Amino acid sequence: MPNPYAAAGVDTAAGDLAVELMKSAVSATHNASVLGGVGGFAGLYDVSFLKDYDRPLLATSTDGVGTKVAIAQAIDKHDTIGQDLVGMVVDDIVVVGAKPLFMTDYIACGRVVPNRIADIVAGIARGCSATGTALVGGETAEHPGLLGPDDYDVAGAATGVVEADRQLGAHLVQDGDVVVAIESSGLHSNGYSLVRHILSGKGVGYTDQLPEFGAGVSVGEALLEPTRLYTAPLLDLLDARPGAVHSLSHVTGGGIAANLARVLPVGTWVEVDRSTWTPPAVFRVLADMAGTPVEDTEGTWNLGIGMFAVVDAASASAVLEDLRAAGLPAWTVGTVSTSVRELAGFEQGAKGVDGGAVRLVGSYAG
C-alpha cells in the first residue's frame, strides 16, 4: 500500500538511514555522563558532579550559522558547516567562563539526503569532540514545499556550567586592563548575506578561483573555511591562570567594536588600534569588490579577530604566551580606561547591554 506521507514528500526511510549513518560520529562525543544512546525522545546527562560545586551556574546558548549554508549548498560541500555551528554556540558559553557539557542540534531540510545529513552531523560531532561537549540529541525535519529539495538550515543549543566565583564578565574589568585580540580563521559565520550580495553584484561564482585565495582553491571553498574553536584552549588558560582573564568577547554578529563593548562596564572605554594587525585577504578582496574601505565593514565582519580577552595588565604577557603556545595567534590591541573623555564616535554597549565604549583608531597594517 502506498505511503501517503511519502506521497506528500516526506521520506521517513531516508530519515532512518541518516540516523544510522550519523550514529558512530555522535556516539564518539559521549562520555560517562551521557545516559542512553542515539535515538531517544530526550537526551539524558548525569549532573551528579554538580554536588561538588559551591554554587554552580548553568550557562546556555543557541544559534545557527546564517546564510553560510547557502554556499555549502551551492558547491555541495557539507562536512564543515557543523563545526561552524559548534563554534557559534559553544564558544558563546566559554565567554562567561563556563565549561560546555552537552549540545543538541536541529536540521530543517526540503528533502532528507542521508549522506548529506550525515556529513553535517559528523561536522557537529567533530566540533563537539574538540570542545569537550557531548552531542546528546538532535532532530532532522523534512519540510517539502517550505524548503527547496536541496535547501537546509541548521541550529543548535548547548548547556555549560561555571562556578559562581569564577564567572567572567564586565564586573571584573578594571582600569588599565589589557585587551588581547585572538585571531579568527576567516569570516566564521557572520556577514554572509553581505558576502553573497557582493559576489552576485560582481558576477563571481562560488566555483571560480581568485589568486588571493590560493592556487586550486575555489571562492566557495575559501568562504567555507570553518569557524575556529576557542573553547578548549581558553578553558585551559582559565584553569592555568585563575583571575588573569576578566572578560571574554566572541566577535560574531555586530562586528568588532559592538561585541567588545558588551563585555566592558559602563564608564570604561577602549580604543582598538588597527595598526596592530592586517585583515586577512578574504576581507580585503571582498571590500575591494564592493568598492568600499575595509573599515566600513567593521560592524559586519570580524576582520581577523575571533575573540577578545580582557586581562589583568600584570598577566598580559603570560596570557599571550599561553594562547600562542596553544596555537592561537594573539596580540594586544588596546587598554581599558576609566578616565573622563568625550565619547563621540564610540560604540557604547550593544544587543541591549549597557556596556563600555569602544572605537577603532588608526590604519590597518599592511
UniProtKB/TrEMBL annotation:
Its EC number is 6.3.3.1. The keyword Cytoplasm applies. CDD domains: PurM (cd02196). Residues 57-162 form the PurM-like N-terminal domain. Keywords: ATP-binding, Cytoplasm, Ligase, Nucleotide-binding, Purine biosynthesis. It is an enzyme of class 6 (ligase). It holds the Pfam family AIRS. Its main location: cytoplasm. GO terms for molecular function: phosphoribosylformylglycinamidine cyclo-ligase activity. Belongs to the AIR synthase family. This is Phosphoribosylformylglycinamidine cyclo-ligase. It comes from Curtobacterium subtropicum. The gene is purM.
